[in-house]
Amino acid sequence: MSPPEVREAVERLHGGTVAEVRQGGGAIFVVTLDSGERLVAKHGTGEGAIAAEAAGLAWLAEYGDVRLPAVHAHDEDWLVMDYVPPGPPSKRAAEELGRGLAALHLRGAPAYGSPPPGGPADAWMGLAPMRNEPQPDWPTFYARHRIEPYVRMCADQELFDAGEVQVFDRLCEALPRAAGPPEPPSRLHGDAWSGNVRWSDEGVWLIDPAAHGGHREGDLAMLQLFGAPLLSHILGAYAESTAVPLAEGWRGRVRLHQLFPLLMHAAVFGGGYARQALDAAREALRLT
Questions:
Q1: Interacting residues of 277 by C-beta distance below 8 A, sequence separation 6+
Q2: The pTM is what?
Q3: What is the bridge-based pairing of β-strands 71-74 and 78-82?
Q4: How far apart (Å, rounded) are the C-alpha atoms in residues 32 and 75?
Q5: What domains appear along the chain, each with residue ranges and CATH number?
Q6: Within 10 Å of residue 26's Cβ, how many Cβ atoms?
Q7: Which residues of 70-91 are buried (b: 16+ CB within 10 A; e: fewer)?
Q8: What is the pLDDT of residues 217-245, one digit of tens each?
Q9: Where does residue 1 rank: exposed (0-12), middle (13-18), buried (19+ CB within 10 A)?
Q10: What are the GO MF terms of this UniProt record (predicted)?
Q11: What is the pLDDT of residues 112-127, one digit of tens each?
């Protein structure tokens, strides 16, 4: 996207006169208006991406449990929202995030795999398509919409051979035994890796959600995937504040919940992610 295209989109959707457009990474732009107000303008990565993100941000922000950028306007291609100035991580903000996530998860969702209200079933996680379709339980949802599609994508790219695909097939069959005790679906951010945890002087914000009804251990596993700052404080505050304690053995299921993002990264980026996903699947099988 060129600066004139960004300028046109922001002025059309939000109003005001754009004074400056600065690249923020990928399809994200930091826009300064003549008034001095700064905004983020984001161009969608695929069909339905903007609608899914806007619906997800609204759903996650419903009760104010965690800090999320407010959406000012959007259309099929562009999302205009708050700009969050960066700041240093702090113990206070990390513990606030842990408590907020615990509260957010307990707000619940209609079903495992349900999209945010008003959001499309066909959404995105980064550059990868992601299907949100209600399923009767977490093992069915996770196998059908978080493992099998990405294993097929990887196999089509010859990242997995037939024997390695069978590892994932065995895991999908064993998921009811590996998943831990059943629990109601949670309201998930869905992509809470460290890059989507934005620290500021005010606190910590969550950006770029892939929101859906899912298993709360999924958000906690994503925080651990690439090592969020002050992780022990986030997880400690989460565990202390939740009204419904995490199920016994949740730490042993971290790799099971990290399997989806690893498969997604393998399907999009290839490289070592395929090997990490296979290792995670084998580790998860040991839970059975």
A1: 154, 259, 262, 263, 265, 266
A2: 0.94
A3: antiparallel
A4: 20
A5: 86-288 (3.90.1200.10)
A6: 12
A7: ebbbbeebbbbbbebeeeeebe
A8: 999 999 999 989 999 999 999 999 888 89
A9: middle
A10: kinase activity
A11: 999 999 999 999 998 8
